[in-house]
Amino acid sequence: MSELQAIQTKDACPVAGPYSQALLTPHALYISGQLPALPSGELPSGSMAYKTSLCIANLKAILAASGSDISRVVKTTVFLTDMKNFAEVNGEYEKHFGVNGAPKPARSCVAVHQLPKGVEVEIECVALPGGGGKGHDEEEIERRVAG
After folding, report:
1. How far, in Å, are 63, 68, 79 from residue 146 at the CA level?
2. The model's pTM
3. Is 13 a catalytic site residue?
4. Distance CA 93, CA 102 (A)
């Protein structure tokens, strides 16, 4: 019986290295940093708002695959290669987090020298399992984690 379950979905961009898209535990879902990529892995060009929306779409797809949803995100970390993009990223971010009565998650925003594949933004998160996505309850999550 494993307390860890790797989450993998074709509805989010593929990983760029030797790690899981996410790990589900009985108490939390840890989602790896998501790049502004399509599920095919393609890195389209566009505004920072668009690139941020792609990162968030990937997070949402992984949340749904685990049986959770964006309203259950408790912490995000945003990585930017240039803080001049902070306001534009925030403008898109606030359209998705803390809406419809959900609390805004805790968040850190960090400027970094560079990110994988030369992207300008990456977002990771920690969420509570269950409560959304495909409608899994806690017993179902425990069953899935147990394998």
Report:
1. 18, 17, 33
2. 0.88
3. no
4. 14
Q: Which DSSP state fits 62?
A: H
Starting at the earlier edge strand, list the strands of the sheet with 22-24: 5-7, 22-24, 29-34, 121-127, 73-80, 106-111
The answer to whether 21 and 41 have CB atoms below 8 angstroms apart is no
Instruction: Provide the residue-wise pLDDT of the chain in tens; the chain has 147 residues.
Output: 479 999 999 999 999 899 999 999 999 999 999 999 999 999 999 999 999 999 999 999 999 999 999 999 999 999 999 999 999 999 999 999 999 999 999 999 999 999 999 999 999 999 999 986 443 444 444 444 444
Location of structure tokens 């933004």 = 121
